[in-house]
Write a structure and sequence with these properties.
- This protein is an alpha/beta fold.
- Helix content is 39%, strand content 15%.
- The protein has 13 helices and 14 strands.
- Strands 1-9-8-5-4-2-3 form a seven-stranded mixed sheet, with helices on both faces.
- A hairpin with a 5-residue loop joins strand 6 and strand 7.
- It starts with 8 loop residues before the first helix and ends with a helix.
Length: 381
Amino acid sequence: MRPIQMVDLKKQYNKIKTEIDEAVLGVLESSAFINGKPVQDFANNLSIYLGIKHVIPCANGTDALQIAMMALGLEPGDEVITPSFTYIATTEVIALLRLTPVFVEVDSRTFCMDPASLEKVITVKTKAIVPVHLYGHAAPMDEIMAIAKKHNLFVIEDNAQAIGSDYYSSDGKKGKTGTIGDIGTTSFFPSKNLGAYGDGGAIFTNNDELAGKMKMIANHGQRKRYYHDMVGCNSRLDTLQAAVLNIKLKHLDEYIKARQGVADDYDKAFAGNTKITIPCRAKYCNHVFHQYTLLLDGVDSPHSYRDGLNEFLAQHSIPSMIYYPVPGHRQKMFEHFKSASVDLPVTDWLTERVISLPIHTEMDNDQLNFITSKVLEFVNR
């Protein structure tokens, strides 16, 4: 059996080696390493795939969030609502721009923003909502967009973990996550479902004015070279990364299907076990499984039990990860917001119980059988 990895990027590369090598060599031969043709080609192709008017490539997913918030004209002290149960980049950017993060509860089944909790924290200072499509499962955008419309708030979708996911609105429309709010953002970190071979990110919108602003912000606030109309930053997607992403975009649906197949096998193995809750798959979306995250419940001392499973798997050379052991509202970096006093019982409950198993496009039956047998060996003893 091959060694088990959380993500096997080498085997994935070997499958598309000829295509990738040709694309990379094309960039080397052109020597257009910054803003080369593949960058615009990728933006156009991703725009078509997502069914959205504008795609603005940038340097990484964190920059994408920052540029989006800058383009909305948010001012210091404005409140931005976001889940605490997410990667720190989502909330870090809010504080970086001297905005005020307001942490909101998540649903214990989907791990995504809870609309019932959302409306309770809206104040006169609230200007934007940042739902996160966590682990590859979409947030309930129908309810979130209705609340945003009611209170005249912007919506920025953090789609870093769910690119390619379909969302089925209650009115019968189907669209991709990241295209529903005012702005969508994503990351092309190598381990993502659509991953580069380095850093990369992108911003999406159907709004012409916002698209123009975001393009300027990402390019030092200039539309014409050396004429800077607004404060911006320097955030570009390298031509080499764009060339790689152009190839991998062609395979994204195939990658998603492979991940869903792995998730199906995990689900079958763990179904009915009283100590394991398998990932939710809400009817309003298709889960694209950036992570396969179990919830351990029905046990004494769930935190130590979860850590025990983590250690047991490591002893058998099975990697696993805990996303995320410390939620945003309990991070030291936000102490001055007095966020630790915020009551988020579901978030705190989840941080003691979640554990993610290996999932990627290159897993085989021997690996899956070994992983599931060891998980069950631990929980059934």
